[in-house]
């Protein structure tokens, strides 16, 4: 049976989640944001293991974090065709977007044992939803679902991604200087994600690379939907 997964990868602020969500809705599929699961684990660690970590003298161990994720539990729950993150039975879709989680999620996501645990959860979620799932992240097409029939790698210039990120936050009032600062932060994140030892950010060899710098959200959604209807008819 054909694996009914569309893998959408790309750097920070490339529009992965927005695109994946709308593509899933157009196709009548489910949407899974892998970043939400990493954020949920980070929130669980912050709330239950204390505000400590690398550099504080008492870092969290991989075993602690995975055991906590299993015990709370941290899980994905399908609600209206969207996989929502839960921690100890509580919907944390909003709580995981806090600045304290944002500051620590990259550190947690870099831990090999945590990535393995998250990958298992994602594969189980997809297997339980045979209609089809659009999954977005940074290693979906290369590591999590290397056999996905459609892999898309979204990209855009750091400046355009900076503008989008600032707009999401309701910022951007500082003009080009603010855009440059945000672009520098995103470029640094790109370097870190692309050079990490575990599951580095990169396009799969058979991915369709879509530069969205000059595309509207609607245009990039239409492009992915058209590819999906060609590769995964029915």
Protein traits:
five-stranded parallel sheet, three-stranded antiparallel sheet, globular, alpha/beta, 50% helix, 234 residues, 16% strand
> Oligomeric status of the shown chains?
single chain
Give the amount of beta strand, in percent.
Answer: 15-25%
Q: Order of SSEs, N→C? A: EHEHHEEEHHEHEHHEH
What structural class do helix, strand and pairing data support?
Answer: alpha/beta
Main sheet?
5 strands, parallel
**Radius of gyration in whole Å, from Cα?**
17 Å
In round numbers, the mean pLDDT is 90
Query: In terms of per-residue confidence, which ranges show pLDDT below 50 for 5 or more consecutive residues?
Result: 54-58
Give the overall form: globular
Strand tally: 8
Would you give an account of this structure?
- There is one protein chain.
- This protein is α/β, with parallel strands linked by helices and 234 residues long.
- The chain has 9 helices and 8 strands.
- It has a 5-stranded parallel sheet with strand order 2-6-1-7-8. It has a 3-stranded antiparallel sheet with strand order 3-4-5.
- Strand 4 (82-87) and strand 5 form a beta hairpin.
- The protein is globular, with a radius of gyration of 17 Å.
- The model is unreliable at 54-58 (pLDDT under 50).
